[in-house]
């Protein structure tokens, strides 16, 4: 079945590659939650593709 609705993710967080991993670790520690990505643009785009997200902003 093809989804007739587009999926937009309008709340994203990305960081410069140089600090992305440390930023994600600190955010996870601060909020006491598990973080699953590394905070880079490439990781965001790949996870969006895998999940079928049509637009990230």
From TrEMBL:
This is Amidohydrolase. It comes from Capillibacterium thermochitinicola.
